[in-house]
Amino acid sequence: MKAILKIGSLVMVAILAVFALTACSKEDPLEKVKLAEVTRSIFYAPLYVALEQGYFEKEGLDVELTTTWGGDKTMTTLLSDGADIALVGSETSIYVDAQGATDPVINFAQLTKTDGTFLVSREKIDDFDWEMLKGSTFLGQRKGGMPQMVGEFVLKKHGIDPHTDLELIQNIDFGNIPNAFASGTGDFVQLFEPTASVFEKEGKGHIVASFGEESGHVPYTTFMAKQSYMDKHPETVENFVRALHKAQEWVEKADAEEIAKVVAPYFEDSDLDTLAVVVERYRSQGSFAKDMKLTKEGWDNLQAIMDEAGELPEKVDYEKLVNTSIVEKGMK
């Protein structure tokens, strides 16, 4: 009888050991994170690299990306819990704050630190001068959005009043601006990549200047979340930033051709050569924020641009809507 009990005990121990090993071998389920991006552009190459290279998965995250096409739509998606994190211009967090939000939207990591748009002319211009815009029809971006405000800032920098020296069109929906220009609207247009380079390749337009080079450093597109989400999921946000930082480092060192191959699935209408050219163009002008920290200098420059455009509701202290501790932890 004792022998039977002893054998039974050994069998039970073996079963428990197998169960324990099986349980340990199973990976913990990935945590779902809903991310809304304001547009689809090579400008956001580090994000697509993080997705394609598995950096998020290595940090235990399953990131679901949605393109919401416009700052207003992106912020609405975030505020209504359609997204946990948004990638959008920092100006949107200031607009939300001005509306008296009880759950403020916090900027916690910067993806790009320059404007990402280019001035495209319908006609080929060998020796471009900003004075050529006077008297022209300029197809700009949505009023109150970062592209439009930077565009106006740069025009004024060159002595051009966008509201009196040219015909400014800014009532076209963000996602339809390229089609409007391709259909014949405007002498000049402000476009993101890769659309600008695709238009140039197809003979629909010609890149004549970079708004990013003209405007200086600004927190152009940042990752942000509601304070309540950050309070409930501090490790999630930190892991999110850590994955992005690894992607930023990879983009900084990799060949443009290699980066183009990685992000190609997000740009089915663009060839690899065009993607590589655009990646190098953004990288050479310092658009990718490899340190990911939104600085006070950048924040002040942002508000100066908003104020110049007449779109700053009221000045907001840097500490109120910016949290740099996540980046500081995530980059260690």
UniProtKB/TrEMBL annotation:
Membrane-crossing residues? Answer: none
The signal peptide stretch is 1-20
Q: This protein's superkingdom?
A: Bacteria
Q: Which UniProt keywords apply?
A: Signal
- SUPFAM superfamilies cross-referenced by the UniProt entry: Periplasmic binding protein-like II
Where found?
Periplasm
Q: Is Signal one of the keywords?
A: yes
Instruction: Cite the PANTHER family for this sequence.
Output: ALIPHATIC SULFONATES-BINDING PROTEIN-RELATED (PTHR30024), TAURINE-BINDING PERIPLASMIC PROTEIN (PTHR30024:SF47)
Similarity section = Belongs to the bacterial solute-binding protein SsuA/TauA family.
Provide the protein name. Answer: Binding protein YtlA
Q: What species is given as this protein's source?
A: Lederbergia ruris
Q: Which gene encodes it?
A: ytlA
